[in-house]
């Protein structure tokens, strides 16, 4: 399956995983992530089986063991998916959130085998379910395992929400700084000053 692999040199520096109670992949603090089937190997003549398993990986109605671990390349995409909790299906909304966002350093995973969903779909014509189309440009899968040493951070849902708020206000502050530097802020300030000057002058005239 070498032709389907994504070279590790092309991987983003960080990948993100949402781990939730319905995950087929298991997680332990010492062992990291382990796919439900961590021994399956695809031979060169098993392309159709490989493609079928990719489709199953992104199908909610398939619950059999697979050798893949799903990951996101964009933090906010991962957060959005986690906050939606699609694994809940039609069950009543729960106030108790049990998922975790993990950040993974790909630079220490030299021996790991990765696949890019975008490349599988666009270059190798893998037909994934419609519900998974939203992930095409931001999803990767890893074969078998991700060691604990590669995990650099983890956040619970409350921490994710706080982080998102912090990033939002940082962006707003950066935008204000940018407006100030490119003159937009100065123009607005000058316009306000002119308004004040007009008001003051009018008051002086009225006082005479």
UniProtKB/TrEMBL annotation:
It comes from the Eukaryota. Pfam families: DUF7587 (PF24494). Residues 11-153 form the DUF7587 domain. InterPro entries: DUF7587 (IPR056009). This is DUF7587 domain-containing protein.
